[in-house]
Amino acid sequence: MATTGVVNTTLFTFRAGVSGGTVVSNQNDFSISFTHEPRDTTTKDSGGYRTLLEGLRSYEVSVSGLLAFNDTLSVFTSTTGLNAVLKARTMQTWIAGTGVSGDPKLSGEGYFTSLEVGSPEQENNCTWSCTLQGNGQWYEGTF
Q: Residue 120: helix, strand or coil by DSSP?
């Protein structure tokens, strides 16, 4: 049954891998940004006003979390971890959403373009964050 009311952030996760089916472990934050970059068609005939036409569409996915070396899918998980995938320049399928039957699902494919691992302050949690640049269009469906 589809989620009703305001969606709890705990439900909304990022999944990656060959088929996009594995939840990235210990996530704290997920965001996706969709952009449209219209082309400038301003000429001397535009009367001093900028004119535009449609242009490139793109998206970027950002995910962050807490570092744990024994996670199913995290930063340093053998050949499937975010670090290995970034180094290998491997295209990744991704899925985002709650995983609840009937809820909206976003998906696509892309390349991880950045990975940051941090150790902030004393007696605190180690963290990681990464960015994926979308390749082609994103898709909207349901779980």
A: coil
User: Cα(103)–Cα(114) distance, rounded to whole angstroms?
Assistant: 29
| Phi, psi torsion values for 67, nearest 5 degrees | -85, 130
CB neighbour class for 65 (10 Å; exposed up to 12, middle 13-18, buried from 19): buried
Within 13 Å, how many C-alpha atoms sit on residue 10's CB side? 0
Q: Concatenate the DSSP letters of all residues of 83-108 into one string.
A: HHHHHHT--EEEEEE---TTSEEEEE
pLDDT digit string (tens) for 118-142?
998 899 999 999 999 999 999 999 9
pLDDT for 18: 66
Round to whole Å and give the CA distance between 143 and 102. 5
- Domain extent at residue 95: 13-36+55-142
Number of separate domains in the chain:
1
Is residue 60, in this structure, part of any structural domain at all? Answer: yes
